[in-house]
Each structure stands twice: as C-alpha cells, then as structure tokens.
Recover the amino acids of this structure.
C-alpha cells in the first residue's frame, strides 16, 4: 500500500493548502509541506483536530474556493485521509453537515462571535485538541477572538496554526471583506509578542494575559513560492527565477502551547 503525502492528498481534493489548488486560475499556498513537517508524528495517533473554515457554499459566506476539483470541504477531507485514527471537528459560518461521517463532526459557528465559539465548546463537552487550524475568514479581529476562546481547549504542547496572515488591519492598505481597521493585523501583533513578550495594541484578544502566560513559542513561515520555469533553446537545463524574501510577508504561523 502506497502512503500518500499530505500534499498529494491536498491536490487530489483541490484545497489550496497544496501545490495545485482547485483550478489553474487559483493560486495554491504550498502550506502542506510545512504542515507535514510538524504533523507527521501524529499521523497514526488518535488525536482531536479542529479546523476553522471549511470552504463550503452557503448564504452566510460566499466560499469562492468551491469550484474545479474542490466540491466543498476539501481540507477537512484531506485531514480525514491523512489522519486515519483522528477525531476531526470542523466549524464554518455556513452549515456543512454533508461533510460528516464516522470521524468528522461539523458545527455552524461565526468565528467573529465569541458567544458562538463558547457555545460550540459547550456542545462538545470537555474535549481538548492536539491540533487547531484557523483557515476561516482571515480577518484579524476574527483570528484574534478565535485564538482567545479556543486556545484554552488546546492541550499542553498542542499546535495552533493560523493561515493567511495578511496586511489587513489598522494602518494597512488592504481593502475588501477580509479587512478590519479596528485592530492591527495578526502577523504584526504576534511578531511583536515574539520580540517583547506582550501583544501590540489595538487587538481583539479577550484574555491577553492567559495567552501571554500560556504561549510557549511562535513560529512564522513563508511557504515555498511557486515560480515559473523558462526553457530556452540555448540551455539544456531550466532556468528558475529567484524570489527574494520580503519583510513581513509571512503567511502562516504556528503557536505552541506550554
């Protein structure tokens, strides 16, 4: 039996976490090699994993990623295949019960609403998670509210990922449905914490003291960038374009709990 990599599974289902994405016109994020470097040791374990943002169509949010290879819920299907013994929980602002099976449970939750998040935790009892992945709205205030509520249910040593860190907060020029000018973007707030041990303000954290006391480490990642390869008649080998790192371009972070 051939064991598939996380990237292979991601590309099969059409999530943009892999290297292909749902269609030719949708840029993939290349997150899966980073995820696998942290998560491979859990592959056969009976862990509890929670994903925020399932990418399903509905009246409350237009999930534009649902096209091509992606029929909805691509990434939670990926986690289901990658972790054959895991219990997988998913929350999305749109109902997604069609994704449920023997190990997947879904809940309709607005991650920007703290009461919704608290009620979700009440509904699952005392369950704690080894892994939490925020791939929701990408708004900085939503990311920070969600971290505030859910981090308390992360086990000691657990891993909390936030995807798609954008320059979409106060003082940034980002516009659109993922922008919020009431708080700083999550990348800058977490990088400030890494350097100073406290969070930059303004932020949307509900319990900053708990977070500051219980975060062990924060890692930032710039995923491998897909670059075009030019084949020229005068050269036998392809020429690759060199892409330099741009400061404050980290798009994925991992927060480890003490």
């Amino acid at each position: 039996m051939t064991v598939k990599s996380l990237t292979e599974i991601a590309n099969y289902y059409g999530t943009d976490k892999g290297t292909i994405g749902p269609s030719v016109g949708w840029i993939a994020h290349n997150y899966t090699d980073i995820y696998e470097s942290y998560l491979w040791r859990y592959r056969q374990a009976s862990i509890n994993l929670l994903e925020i943002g399932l990418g399903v169509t509905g009246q409350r949010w237009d999930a534009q990623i649902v096209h091509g290879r992606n029929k909805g819920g691509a990434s939670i299907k990926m986690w289901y295949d990658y972790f054959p013994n895991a219990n997988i929980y998913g929350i999305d602002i749109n109902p997604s019960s069609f994704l449920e099976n023997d190990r997947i449970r879904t809940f309709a939750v607005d991650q920007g609403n703290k009461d919704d998040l608290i009620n979700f935790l009440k509904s699952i009892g005392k369950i704690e998670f080894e892994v939490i992945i925020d791939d929701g709205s990408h708004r900085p205030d939503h990311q920070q509210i969600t971290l505030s509520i859910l981090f308390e249910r992360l086990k000691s040593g657990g891993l909390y990922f936030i995807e798609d860190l954008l320059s979409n907060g106060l003082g940034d020029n980002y516009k659109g449905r993922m922008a919020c000018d009431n708080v700083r973007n999550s990348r800058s707030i977490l990088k400030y914490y890494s350097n100073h041990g406290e969070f930059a303000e303004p932020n949307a954290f509900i319990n900053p003291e708990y977070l500051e006391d219980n975060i062990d480490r924060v890692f930032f990642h710039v995923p491998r960038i897909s670059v075009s390869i030019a084949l020229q008649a005068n050269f036998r080998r392809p020429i690759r374009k060199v892409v330099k790192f741009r400061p404050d371009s980290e798009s994925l972070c991992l927060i480890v709990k003490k």
Summary: DSSP finds seven helices and nine strands in the chain. The first helix runs from residue 6 to 13. The radius of gyration is 18 Å.
